[in-house]
Recover the amino acids of this structure.
């Protein structure tokens, strides 16, 4: 399993970090994704990394610049959001005049435009001028649900990053509550009998879509725990809000255990995609995990 593999949907952040590290930040980006909070978090962390005084490629969280970013009061960062149902021409004009001013703290001004696809056609046209003639080291980041809603010319002037679809949090929460997934994962960790969970497992096995969603949630948890055992920073996690719980849980496992569990989950997902009976795939996944956990078999032996 390669590192890339373990990180799953996290490669966007890797790419952004490399961009900062190599000092090759472009002047305009589009971040496309379904979850507004997630897009904003991604943009803020990218900006934080760019402006960080340590300039290591990721935010140090400790310098004045990082602290200002964490309090949303960095003088060189402009936030634009829709008012009512759209972002109007005047708002973009105002943003442009702020971008033209000399930055207060650093060497560049940065604008983050939320719901960029709600810009009126006039506002999009105005923005285009700034994208065509970027000023100094200024950066503009457009957040949108669908880059296709922005004009072709805007798209052609920006680097596009798509956030993975499966990282929306609300689903994780509801599945966790419905099927006691956190408890279930704990059961795996503590090598408990999974008999207590048989009712949940039976329900999960009834529908292919539910089973695949549940496996995604579990896989993300185990990936996060594995990442934490490698001292990953919170931004690299899917479940950033569960960091402390996951950190505690990760201590119950050897790294090899987590890798094996992730492998077993992925195999079960593959089987489900191949139309193999869902509850059969789930059962065989659990069997594999338990065998691995009890050291009864080695996956490299047949
Ligand atoms: Zn910093």
């Amino acid at each position: 399993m390669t590192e890339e593999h373990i990180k799953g949907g996290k490669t966007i952040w890797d790419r952004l970090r490399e961009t900062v590290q190599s000092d090759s930040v472009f002047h305009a980006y589009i971040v496309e994704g379904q979850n507004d909070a997630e897009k904003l978090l991604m943009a803020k962390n990218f900006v934080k990394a760019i402006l960080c005084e340590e300039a290591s490629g990721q935010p140090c969280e400790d310098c004045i610049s990082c602290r200002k970013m964490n309090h949303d009061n960095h003088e060189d960062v402009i936030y634009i959001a829709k008012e009512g149902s759209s972002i109007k021409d005047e708002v973009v004009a105002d943003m442009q005049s702020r971008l033209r001013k000399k930055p207060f703290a650093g060497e560049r001004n940065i604008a983050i435009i939320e719901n960029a696809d709600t810009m009126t056609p006039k506002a999009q046209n105005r923005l285009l001028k700034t994208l065509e003639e970027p000023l100094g080291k200024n950066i503009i980041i457009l957040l949108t649900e669908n880059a296709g809603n922005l004009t072709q010319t805007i798209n052609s002037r920006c680097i596009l990053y798509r956030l993975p679809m499966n990282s929306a949090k609300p689903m994780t929460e509801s599945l966790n509550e419905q099927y006691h997934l956190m408890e279930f994962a704990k059961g795996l960790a503590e090598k408990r009998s999974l008999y207590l969970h048989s009712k949940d497992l039976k329900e999960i096995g009834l529908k292919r879509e539910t089973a695949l969603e549940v496996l995604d949630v579990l896989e993300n948890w185990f990936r996060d725990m594995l990442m934490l055992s490698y001292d990953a920073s919170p931004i690299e996690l899917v479940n950033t809000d569960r960091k402390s719980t996951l950190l505690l849980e990760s201590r119950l496992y050897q790294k090899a255990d987590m890798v094996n569990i992730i492998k077993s989950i992925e195999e079960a997902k593959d089987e489900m995609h191949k139309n193999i009976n869902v509850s059969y795939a789930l059962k065989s996944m659990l069997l594999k995990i338990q065998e691995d956990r009890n050291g009864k078999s080695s996956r490299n032996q047949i």
Observations:
- Confidence is low (pLDDT under 50) at residues 1-10, 297-302.
- The domain at 3-165 is CATH 3.40.50.300 (Rossmann fold).
- The first strand starts at residue 28 and ends at 32.
- The chain has two domains: 3-165, 168-294.
